[in-house]
Design brief:
37% helix; 16 helices; six-stranded mixed sheet; 497 residues; 2 domains
């Protein structure tokens, strides 16, 4: 019997009364492994209103107690790390190694949430005027919500609800309907950590349920990660309904390869960062920009990429797993065909990839293009597959100009032995996250995830100090006390009982 995914509402895992269910499939086989509900309006309302009710209690729980919940939660996540990774692999197709990394990066954010007290400190100035002091208080917003994608079903929800809840808010999570199982396990462990019932609610569904969250007056802040069109929709709809919104969108991440770079390091890092996780990550390197004579390395890059084979989650030799769906696979194949038709040289074509024992999986082999120009579809669109495109320029200045003219600004990197070249690059590039001899510069959670331009809509980013500010508001108090009001005399005696 197919597993029916429950809702998590008012502190209870409950069966949905909906008549609309979405099939959840294993990407390695396309077999149905579960069905997820599209929550009814009544169920959505119940979740949001209960979160609002619980907020009145939770915001008054001492910050140290909220931190202890996160300490317990991170302990439970570590204890069940491998189990969560196996569940995650089943619904995403990720290899075991990749799935474990997904879980671990989420745990790191929970560890940061356990440090919430120091991030909730306000500021004080004594005697801003005669006998007048001014100080600020950091206070939670209310009910916040998160809408998360399929590609990181542990890490991205853990970017959101632990920090929001640790800061004193309650949270409604709407995970991707393609990968709901990991989120439910995260909720089970959160409940075991001792969180007050109702501080976390989980609802399921598609656009209709997302719109309900975006339009509901009790939702104060919206966090989203996903594609560009949906991020734009989330941002415009959420802000039109007077909500605070952070919407992380698409990317076209470039790695600049200088001719003085270490060739072996360049090729090794390009292979892993381009096809790892089947290229289904917003920080994947999907464009290599070879400067000057570095273009001579493209042939060797093709040779090494050809050695990488996709496979099932438990195949220790697999470099990565399948794409999330047949639809996603066909979209990438169409882009590969467009690249060939538009004149790019396909050095390696993984369109006909198959994996023994898994004939129905969404497999794509590593694919490499050279001779790519900026007017081609494979350069302009985020492919979100194991495809790397190569461009060639003569100078670092040309590379910087090329990248700054691209609409996205999520991540980039430069490989070079020159400190001067690296400094020029980090200073002039219009991208939020820069790696120097590091292929995927995702910051640890005491910093924030800082994509720029078309890769982000909003003002305050995920995790780190910016996330705490996103989920809180500052209240400034100016106080004056008069000396004449200080009590004196025998009535000041302290009565001990």
């Amino acid at each position: 019997m197919t597993q029916l995914v429950p809702l998590f509402v008012a502190g209870e895992f409950c069966h949905s009364e909906t008549s609309q269910w979405i099939e959840v499939t294993d990407p390695a086989t396309n077999a149905v492994i579960a069905e997820v509900p599209c929550a009814t309006d009544q169920e959505m309302e119940h979740a949001i209103c209960d979160a609002q009710r619980v907020f009145g209690q939770w915001k008054n729980v001492p910050v140290s107690e909220r931190a202890r919940v996160m300490l317990k939660y991170q302990h439970l996540l570590k204890e069940h790390h491998d189990e969560i990774a196996m569940l995650l692999s089943k619904e995403t197709g990720k290899t075991t190694v990749d799935a474990k990394g997904d879980v671990w990066r989420g745990i790191e954010v929970v560890e940061q949430a356990a440090n919430i007290a120091s991030n909730m400190m306000g500021e004080t100035v004594e005697n801003v005027a005669t006998d007048i002091d001014t100080y600020s208080l950091i206070q939670p917003l209310g009910v916040c919500c998160g809408i998360t994608p399929f590609n990181f079903p542990a890490m991205i929800p853990l970017w959101m609800f632990p920090l929001a809840i640790a800061a004193g808010n309650t949270f409604v999570l709407k995970p991707s309907e393609q990968v709901p199982l990991t989120a439910m396990r995260l909720a089970e462990l959160f409940e075991q950590a001792g969180a007050t019932k109702g501080v976390l609610q989980i609802v399921h569904g598609g656009k209709e349920q997302v719109d309900y969250l975006l339009e509901h007056p009790q939702i104060k802040a919206v966090s989203f990660v996903g594609s560009v069109p949906v991020a734009q929709y989330i941002y415009h709809t959420g802000t039109a309904n007077n909500k605070r919104v952070q919407a992380f969108a698409g990317a076209k991440n470039h790695m600049v390869v200088m001719p003085d770079a270490n060739k072996a390091q360049v090729i090794n890092n390009l292979v892993g960062s381009s096809v790892g996780a089947a290229g289904q990550r917003c920080m994947a390197i999907s464009v290599a920009v070879f400067v000057g004579s570095a273009k001579e390395w493209i042939g060797d890059l093709a040779t090494e990429l050809a050695k990488v084979k996709p496979g099932a989650w438990n195949d220790e030799q697999a470099g990565y797993g399948p794409l999330i769906s047949e639809q996603a696979k066909q979209r990438v194949i169409r882009l590969i065909e467009q690249g060939i038709a538009q004149g790019a040289k396909c050095e390696l074509n993984g369109s006909q990839c198959s994996v023994a024992g898994f004939p129905n999986g969404n497999w794509l082999g590593p694919t490499l293009f050279s001779g790519v120009t900026t007017d081609m579809s494979i350069y302009q669109q985020e492919i979100f597959g194991p495809v790397l495109v190569c461009l060639e320029v003569d100078t670092l200045e040309e590379a910087i100009e090329l990248i700054n003219n691209n609409p996205y600004g999520n991540g980039t990197s430069i490989f070079t032995a020159s400190g001067a070249a690296a400094r020029k690059y980090q200073h002039e590039i219009l991208v939020g996250q820069v790696g120097i001899n590091v292929p995927i510069p995702v910051p640890l959670p005491f910093f924030s995830f800082t994509g720029w331009r078309g890769s982000f809509y909003g003002d305050l980013h995920a995790y780190g100090k910016q996330a705490v500010r996103f989920y809180t508001e500052t209240k400034t108090v100016t106080a004056r006390w008069f000396d004449d009001d200080i009590p004196t005399g025998p009535n000041m005696s302290i009565q001990l009982r």
